[in-house]
UniProtKB/TrEMBL annotation:
Record has Zinc as a keyword: yes
Annotated transmembrane regions: none
Key words of the record: Metal-binding, Zinc
Source organism (scientific name): Hibiscus trionum (Flower of an hour)
Record's protein name: ADENOSINE 5'-MONOPHOSPHATE DEAMINASE, EMBRYONIC FACTOR1
Species lineage: Eukaryota, Viridiplantae, Streptophyta, Embryophyta, Tracheophyta
Length: 218
């Protein structure tokens, strides 16, 4: 069935055909949305609301800890009794995954090492008035493929990034270096995003062979 999509005041409306005037999926107007959003922001910024929410969250956290103390062993036995099921063969969905973070840290590390070994003379960046090869970039950072490990890469978003987008964004810089981000995790660079495209293909290939993992990319 064909549908007709029409943008009206910044909101997409769906109609059965171009001549139809009745929406198939009625949605609020942008004015209503922003009015409601500002009301919510006003409520959440109120001091007494924040205090109530904080105490409620603390209460729920302590309640969960109590649940663990009482029922953890019982749940563990129940998990063991379930045939052919563990963490690795239950279906998992990763949602809202950023493209530049679609690979895990071990995969990115292996990819960087592979490129450093196979394509060290590839010209990858223009910095400080000159073109630099991949090998020269790592030499300028005083790094080698042998030095690299997951801890040095430091791209894992841990609890220190919670509510801290400044720290979260820094995790996109492998080894804390913006030039490595530009080379490996950006599409608008000197090599036109070839490295990012290649590692993305590898990730998608892994997902195709994986029976239990599904990703939703933003």
């Amino acid at each position: 069935m064909q549908h007709h999509f029409r943008m009206e005041d910044g909101v997409i409306h769906v109609y059965a055909s171009e001549s139809d005037t009745v929406e198939l999926f009625p949605v609020a107007s942008s004015t209503t949305f922003f009015t409601d959003m500002h009301h919510l922001l006003k409520v959440t910024s109120a001091g007494n609301v924040r205090s109530a929410c904080y105490h409620r969250l603390r209460f729920l956290e302590e309640k969960f800890r109590l649940h663990l103390l009482v029922n953890a062993d019982r749940e563990f036995l129940a998990q063991k009794s379930a045939p052919h099921r563990d963490f690795y063969n239950i279906r998992k969905v990763d949602t809202h995954v950023h493209h530049s973070a679609c690979m895990n840290q071990k995969h990115l590390l292996s990819f960087i090492k592979s490129k450093l070994k196979k394509e060290p003379d590839e010209v990858v960046i223009f910095r400080d008035g000159k073109y630099m090869t991949l090998k020269e970039v790592f030499e300028s950072l005083d790094l080698s493929g042998y030095d690299l490990n997951v801890d040095l890469l430091d791209v894992h978003a841990d609890k220190s990034t919670f509510h801290r987008f400044d720290k979260f964004n820094l995790k996109y810089n492998p080894c804390g270096q913006s030039r490595l981000r530009e080379i490996f995790l950006k599409h608008d660079n000197l090599i036109q995003g070839r490295f990012l495209a290649e590692v993305t293909k590898q990730v998608l290939s892994d997902l195709e062979t994986s029976k239990y993992l599904v990703d939703v990319y933003r």
